[in-house]
Amino acid sequence: MYPLNYIEPVFRPPSEWKSLILQVTNGCSYNKCTFCDMYTADSKKFKPKKTDVIEQELLQIVASGLPVGRVFLADGDAMMLPFNRLKEILLLIKTHLPQVTRVSSYCLPRNLTNKTVEQLTELRALGLTLVYVGCESGDDEVLQLIEKGETYESSLIALNKIKQAGMKSSVMILNGLGGPELSKQHAIHSARLMNAAQPDFLSTLVVSFPLGEERFAKNFVKNNHQPFRLLDQQELFQEMKLLLSELELEKTIFRSDHASNYLVLKGVLGKDKATLVNTVQMAIDKSAHIPLRQEWQRGL
Description:
- This protein is an alpha/beta fold.
- The protein has 2 domains: 107 residues, no CATH class; 167 residues, no CATH class.
- Helix content is 36%, strand content 17%.
- It contains 9 helices and 10 strands.
- The strands form 2 sheets. An 8-stranded mixed beta sheet has the order 1-4-5-6-7-8-9-10. It has a two-stranded antiparallel sheet with strand order 2-3.
- Helix 2 links the parallel strand 4 and strand 5.
- The mean pLDDT is 92.
């Protein structure tokens, strides 16, 4: 554990478990997505961290002598910082931790509205080579219902900027986000977005509501939709099969192995597409004959 005083709660992508988590902001500047319970009004308010404080923390890490190979810029919205501030932070990392091979961050599509491809290219040259983009869905109706503040088009523009800058993108889609009523269009349009963007990494998680689903579900009824309910296991598999069937990716590393998933799926799309679709079909047809996570194993 690195000797820093973190402002809890702290979240990071699963693949960053070995990284130095460097809080350059606290909380999320948007924090309106109805599916997200990461930062509640009581737990944490958004606030950028001053650069001199960040430098002192880097010096603490150097003094500790602990090895650092990668750095993850936390919290959930570090990329909202202006270009010059991000550049300053990356230069500090290069100065104090020159051995770092990769810097990464969460990224909301809106974070890139005021950043040019040229600016992103410069940030990539300074070490910021991977961003995790929570698209959640490629369906505009679902995105509106969850108050994401994004659209298919805004997500695609951001993902294209990332690619043009030479950065890598890791995109997350939330399985079950539209409930039974919008499941089909959620899967089809999410695949359409991924086909257009061709991200380097794609992962799926199953939507869940550890603090209850009332805040999330109210928009469905308010907008004349059927009352929302979580998809059951078989419905989740059907949605996953449709998503995979619609994906036309060239060389995207695909992972559906988060603790929330009943069925663990790993492969490269598109070469492993047929195998992955067949695996999901087996789970639909013969779930007793394929390994599935039990409820108590899902860690939700």
